[in-house]
From TrEMBL:
Protein name in UniProt: MFS transporter
Source organism phylogeny: Bacteria, Pseudomonadati, Pseudomonadota, Gammaproteobacteria, Alteromonadales
UniProt GO MF annotations: xenobiotic transmembrane transporter activity
A Gene Ontology cellular-component term: plasma membrane
TM stretches of this protein: 57-77, 83-104, 125-144, 156-181
Organism: Pseudidiomarina aestuarii
Amino acid sequence: QIADFRENLPVGYRIEIGGSVEQSSRGEGSLQKLQPVMVALMLIFIMLQMRSFSGTFMVFATAPLGLIGAVLALLVFNQPFGFVALLGLTGLAGILMRNTLILTQQVSDNLKDGMETFGAVVEAAVQRARPVILTALAAMLAFVPLTQDSFWGPLAYVLIGGVGVGTIITLLFVPALYALWYRINV
């Protein structure tokens, strides 16, 4: 439709992309350039924290768990998946990986306190469920005002849906993955 409209414009007139769409395109390009560097830095920091490749893998495995909630939120609220939503996914991955670090650190603390392995994993999920859920709810509520903004709305919906669903899945997935990865018997 735009091509037909463009052909019928008077001489000297043209159609250009501008405003928030233009800014979004510029931002997307700069984000794509920095993405590999940021992933590498995240990997280094997580490896320093976990002190193991398997633990690092476990943390990175939880990063995409929020996609389910993020996509559902975008679909339900009819929001576009553009640069701002992509930016929200990057933040969402960090939030979910932080939750995993909290859970795995609690498992380590429980093991150091002398708990048997299976009990340490289960107890870590129970001990950390409340703070993880409450911080997730606080984050979700903090983004509610942004849902009304036409530019930042997709980011808010990605984070609200992704943090909500991703946190619940993480609380179930991480203990199960930990038990499978380290071959813990019930």
